[in-house]
Amino acid sequence: MKKQFIVCSAIVITVLLCTFCQENQVVKGSAEHIAKVTGAINDQAILSADANQGDWLSYGRNYKEDRYSELAQITKENVGELGLAWASEVGTTKGLQATPLVVDGVMFFTGPFNHVWAYDARTGKEIWHLDPKFNHSEKNIDLCCGFSNRGLAMYKGDLFMGMLDGRLISIDAATGKIKWDIMTIPEGSHYSITGAPRIVKGKVIIGNGGAEIGARGYVTAYDAETGAQEWRFYTVPGDPNQPYEHDDLAEAAKTWHGDDYWKQGGGGTVWDAMAYDPDLNLFYIGVGNGAHWDREHRSPGGGDNLYLSSIVALNPDDGSYVWHYQTTPGDSWDYTATQHIILADMDIEGQQRKVLMQAPKNGYFYVIDRTNGEYISADNFVYQNWTTGMDENGRPIEAEGARYTDGQQHWISPSSHGGHNWPPMSYNHKTGLVYIPTANQAEAFVHTKSPNDPDALGGGFGGNVSLNNKLYIPSVFDPHPDAPAPLTQSGRLVAWNPKTQSEVWGVDQIGLYNGGLLSTSSGLVMQGDAEGMFSIRDAENGKLLKQFDLRSGIVSAPITYEVDGEQYITMLVGWGGYLAKLHKHVPRIHPGTIYTFKIGGSAAYPEKLPPHEQPLTAMRDGATPDHIGNGWNVFTRFCVHCHPMPGAGHTTTPDLARSTDNIFNNYENIVMDGALSAKGMPGMRGLISEEEINDVKSFIFYSAEVLGEGMDVNDYLTSVAQMQYVADTKVAIKD
Ligand code: CA
Asked: How many angstroms is it from 339 CA to the middle of ligand 1?
């Protein structure tokens, strides 16, 4: 007895001493500590992420990307006591979209223009900050959707980030210093990277975006240690006069028609979702839309245009094709299938199935067999009118007119924003539900005689891809009265049962574009929204349990982790993305801030700033209707991709009708020469003439004048449309 006591005491003392000496030797957050804990993130650590609930090691939390946590200190019962642990402004008003990574109390996250931070996850204290320098004057013009980044990958002591300018960099997690820096895109091309890389068996895998600007989609694997390229998979066939890069492209090419389909790149960019099944050794990618949007222009004569809008399974060892499932054959609506992919095993009609789930832009929720790509089921999770349903193989049955080939304008739902865009979903293993941030909106499409017909709005960003979405007013204004039901554009958090393909509960939201989801085994589901509210709900029924006002619109997804036995929830708050440039749902966009909560947290909130709006300009130039109308033409071709409608108020980009006199007097420097390129405004010399700049100015002066006098918004739009008709001077898209 006594001997046992002595032995036990010795063990206890040794354990205590070791804990004590370790604490003394390695301080949490020190370079030595970070090197040690991130250095331990190897293949096994990522594979067993579910056995390590305290950390958040990869973008979707695990290879299944389910964004589900079994940390259960925060419950339905005590969530009322949840309070702010810390908040930290990161010095930007551009969008924060990233999912942070956390290992042993050290947090890493990214922000606009590819800034990266390491923080102490317990206190919000900055450990290091990296600005990897981004070439604004060359790249701004290629960025369709703001300057955001969605996150990092972590492996063996290094962090990996894809950059807006196409670089992939490796960062020493301990010091924030760049280790290697490689270019993943051809020189002078229009690609950009916003998505998070994934790590599989020592390879960093990254795609890119740019289908609206003329890009051919691909995904590439690089050696994590050296940055050397290991393989590349192209999602669409290239120049038919050249050999195919991989054999399956010969098959894919049979689904494309005409001689020119490859000249705009074809599209199919892999800009977001990826997932991995280690047992099947399959790596899944979500593939984007076609370029041009209208298949009649892209592939005259039709065809499914593989692998656009598809989920493709690859062998991660060599990047070879294994199977594909196409969600939108022959896409004509920007219906990307790049949206979040979740892997799960579930009982379906008495059979245990290995499934892959996705809610792509086209409005259907898909459950497919991830071993072979076989269709299991699908149903629409938002209003849709482009199909009349699915056939037995999961091929959409297109509704009459949906392809808008008759020259008439057709209102199609979902819009090109999608029934669901990139903000991640969450699959809760307890409730069996998938939580989806959805959007209801219609958009008008019309087929034009040629892809270069200026009647088709779009094709901006300095590229030459026709978008064929006409009269789409991406603003705070109501949608067109001819738009089909639902007549209001709105968001909805949907709790979806993937087995029955039906909504279990939902919550309507004012904004179309809301944040991603996190759910827990303790029965919570959480989401930030366009109005800046962070809401924690009962995952079973949607009942609101706790809400925080975080000042600015939220698009990112929360994470949860545990440090020193305490559970935290962290989320980045910063309005940003394509729609965020065009409208806002808070009185004022606040500085980007990272917020962290814990039970009993009582930290002070950052100051809530009063609403503020620059006055409408009083400058006038007495321009004639044809100049104003032409200015509207030019505005809708080049400016509307980033700037809100004149008069709508500042968003993440300025309302041009509220510029200062100083800005108006320097239009040539700013618009032609890129004087404000560090703020994101591209220089557009060669794309736009001096006369066109003056016409844009006239249109903006006119807008400020009539809106300032109280003209009704719809009357205003009608009047500029009439002047556009008068103008008759069409703006040719750059060849
Ligand atoms: Ca797109």
From this structure: 11
Residue ranges and CATH numbers for the domains of the chain are 51-184+191-518+525-599 (2.140.10.10), 625-729 (1.10.760.10)
145 CA to centre of ligand 1 in angstroms: 10
Name the one residue in this structure whose structure tokens are 């700037």: 643
Ligand 1 centroid to residue 37 C-alpha, Å: 38
Residues 166, 209: contact at Cβ < 8 Å? no
What residues are annotated to the active site? 334
Give per-residue pLDDT as tens, 210-223: 988 889 999 999 99
Q: Residue 24: is its pLDDT beyond 60?
A: no
pTM (2 d.p.): 0.92
- The answer to whether 492 and 508 have CB atoms below 8 angstroms apart is yes
pLDDT of residue 488: 56
What number is the average pLDDT over the span 628-655? 87
**Chain segment 601-616, per-residue pLDDT in tens:** 999 999 999 988 899 9
Express each pLDDT in 442-473 by its tens digit: 877 878 777 766 555 544 444 446 665 444 43
User: What integer pLDDT is reported at residue 465 of this predicted model?
Assistant: 60
> Burial letters for 134-152: b for 16+ Cβ neighbours within 10 Å, e otherwise?
bebeebbbbbbbbbbbbbb
What distance in Å separates the CA atoms of residue 347 and residue 591, rounded to the nearest whole number? 46
Query: Using a CB cutoff of 8 Å and minimum separation of 24, what contacts does 486-491 make?
Result: 486/383, 486/440, 488/440, 489/439, 489/440, 489/441, 489/442, 490/439, 490/440, 491/437, 491/438, 491/439, 491/440, 491/529, 491/530
For residues 621 and 251, give the distance between their C-alpha atoms in angstroms, rounded to a whole number: 58
- N-term to C-term CA, the chain: 90
Residue 123 has pLDDT above 70, yes or no: yes
pLDDT at 467 (0 to 100): 63
Measured at the CA of 461, the angle between CA 475 and CA 307, to 5 degrees, comes to 95
CA of 269 to the centre of ligand 1 (A): 8
Cα 288 to middle of ligand 1, angstroms: 6
Rounded to the nearest angstrom, the distance between the alpha carbon of 398 and the centre of ligand 1 is 20
- Cα–ligand 1 centroid distance for 167 (angstroms): 21
423 CA distance to ligand 1 middle (Å): 15
Q: Is residue 304 within 8 Å of 337, Cβ to Cβ?
A: no
Taking the CA atoms of 27, 31, 32 and 33 in sequence, report the sign of the dihedral they define: positive
Q: Are strands 68-69 and 517-520 parallel, antiparallel or unpaired?
A: parallel
| The amino acid at 701 | F
In terms of average pLDDT, the best of 2-6, 76-80, 185-189, 381-385 is 76-80
Q: Collapse the DSSP code of 410 into the 3-class scheme (helix H, G, I; strand E, B; otherwise coil) and give the result.
A: strand
Burial of 225: CB neighbours in 10 Å, binned 0-12, 13-18, 19+: middle
Beta bridge pairs of residue 495: 435, 505
Taking CA atoms, 664 is separated from 169, 619, 639, 659, 684, in Å, by 39, 9, 15, 7, 16
Query: Among 141, 116, 283, which Cα is nearest to 212's?
Result: 141
CA distances from 28 to 33, 34, 45, 617 (A): 6, 8, 20, 53
DSSP 160: E
Average pLDDT over residues 509-530: 96
Cα 295 to Cα 206, 520, 635, 690, 710: the distances in Å are 27, 42, 26, 34, 42
